[in-house]
Design goal:
alpha+beta
Length: 521
């Protein structure tokens, strides 16, 4: 009887019973999931990040682990280990300034000269303080910092994170790389850091910057390597290929170390690019390999000596490579040679392309400059050069570079009686260099070649920067003295199927190579 009542109830309420049954299943499922052993959400995420890209068959790089043991990634252990060796550097210097008052805008004319005469101002000696960072590399008290932090300093002080302060002695400095070496004396052992291998850095690697921006000691920032081998141009630091980082660095970070994740120094924070003066994520560090070489010489001799070849060079561009029949734009082309220099004595010629030093390939002109600087004066080195389509090796006894040694160009005198002639080629108006032309264009008496009198603005020569007043010295590695010789050389290049021709051009007394597309002229 009871059974019949239950069956009749279910028939009358079948829909409600179905819904209730489904709900019961769902609740039981959640209950069973809650009772089953399972990992936390963080652990599940960690497992997924670690193994999502693992492929035993393929050759994929595993995804980086951003979690360690279920906790966010932290630099704390590394920072605790290296921070004690990062110091604050303060340099006292004096500056002589002249104090003057601004001239009032509405001062009557008769009084302006009187105001200028008595507004020269007396020289005033003022004390200036430069602040930066540094790091201890030896327990004896050797400290590395930037040259610009301590330049012209009368007194240098170093303060450690533990509060100890020392007077520092300048061991030596190298403005060309912006590296300086200091020495302090301590009765207690000093914490140190060691150099790492910056050559193993890759774009995207983590780096940590420690320093004293704006006097805030032991400030730590982190970021990644944004670029490697950055050439900032100019002649201020021609021997440094900077590491670009996005770890925030500011004034006062100069001289502080850049660490890799193993806690080794891979660079020294040196400068930033910033329209506002503050960090915008573009900082530059001097590579540890450069610092190590400089420090070794400063420690041994108190100064740095560099090798000298005696040439003016340019990087080989794709257009130059095409005109020279090279498969790729590698190496440095010799634009001029200093008379009596090691290069001149070894038989270097204009137009030679230096492709290797002691068997190691030369990438470009900057690479050649740095590699020659690293060579020891008085030692021999083998330079592989490409000349007239063939390769040869020149043995050079390296000289010692002096700061006033500058490559120059002196091709001798101009033959007397050179006929005045005009012509056109490559979109250039040309004329022979005669005594009258030299006087008109204010050219040096030693200049010989073919003068550019006009440039077609639609020509490739104009795009490459040729201007009236430039002198063509060589076309296709052949010396030229008349416009007709230029025209003949260009015609020969056309006949040979060349799309470009290489010009040796003298501009304001400085020689350089330019590859011009002769198909556009």
């Amino acid at each position: 009887m009871q059974t019949e009542k239950i069956v009749n109830f279910i028939k009358r309420n079948s829909r409600a019973v179905a819904v209730g049954t489904a709900a019961a299943v769902i609740l039981v499922s959640f209950g069973a999931f809650a009772l089953l052993p399972h990992s936390s959400p963080q652990q599940a995420q960690t497992e997924q990040v670690r193994y999502a890209s693992a492929d035993p068959v393929g050759d994929k790089t595993p995804a980086p682990r951003m979690l360690e043991n279920g906790s966010p990634f932290s630099f704390a252990d590394l920072v605790e280990r290296v921070s004690p060796a990062v110091v604050s550097v303060t340099a006292d210097e004096t500056q002589t300034v002249s104090q003057q008052m601004d001239m009032p805008d509405n001062l009557p004319d008769p009084f302006k000269q009187f105001f200028k005469q008595f507004n020269q101002g007396q020289p005033q000696v003022q004390k200036a303080v430069s602040m930066g960072s540094g790091f201890i590399i030896d327990k004896s008290g050797l400290i590395v910092t930037n040259n610009h932090v301590i330049a012209n300093a009368k007194k240098i002080k170093v303060k450690l994170p533990d509060g100890r302060s020392f007077d520092a002695k300048l061991v030596g400095t190298d403005p060309a790389t912006d590296v300086a070496l200091l020495k302090i004396k301590s009765d207690k052992p000093l914490p140190t850091v060691e150099f790492g291998n910056d050559r193993q850095l890759r774009v995207g690697d983590w780096v940590i910057a420690v320093g004293n921006p704006f006097g805030l000691s032991n400030t730590v920032t982190a970021g990644i390597v944004s670029s490697i081998g950055r050439d900032l141009g100019g002649n201020a630091q021609p021997y440094t290929d900077f590491i670009q980082i996005d770890a925030p660095i500011n004034r006062g970070n100069s001289g502080g170390p850049t660490f890799d994740l193993s806690g080794q120094v891979v660079g020294m924070n040196s400068m930033i690019y910033s329209p506002s003066g503050g960090s915008v994520g573009i900082g530059f560090a001097i590579p540890a390999s450069t610092i190590r070489q400089v420090v070794a010489q400063l420690q041994a001799h108190g100064r740095v000596t560099r090798g000298w070849l005696g040439v003016q060079i340019q990087s080989v561009t794709p257009d130059m490579a095409a005109s020279l029949g090279m498969s790729q734009p590698k190496g440095a082309i010799v634009a001029s040679i200093v008379p009596g220099s090691p290069a001149a004595k070894a038989g270097f010629e204009q137009g030679d392309v230096v492709t290797a030093i002691n068997g190691k390939q030369v990438e470009d002109s900057q690479d050649l400059t740095r590699r020659v600087a690293e060579l020891t004066a008085g030692k021999k080195a083998g330079f592989s050069v490409l000349r007239d389509g063939g390769s040869k090796t020149l043995d050079v006894t390296i000289g010692q570079r002096k700061e006033d040694q500058v490559a120059s160009n002196d091709d001798g005198g101009t033959p007397a009686g050179t006929p005045a002639a005009t012509g056109q080629a490559m979109g250039l108006g040309l004329t022979a260099v005669t005594p009258d032309v030299k006087r008109t264009y204010n050219l040096d008496d030693s200049v010989q070649g073919v003068l550019v009198t006009k440039v077609d603005p639609d020509s490739d020569a104009a795009d490459k920067g040729l201007q009236p007043g430039d002198v063509l010295l060589k076309v296709g590695n052949k010396s030229v003295r008349t416009p007709q010789e230029v025209e003949k050389s260009v015609a020969e290049a056309h006949s040979a199927g060349r799309k470009t021709v290489l010009l040796l051009v003298s501009s304001d007394g400085t020689s350089h190579f330019v590859a011009v597309d002769i198909g556009k002229t």
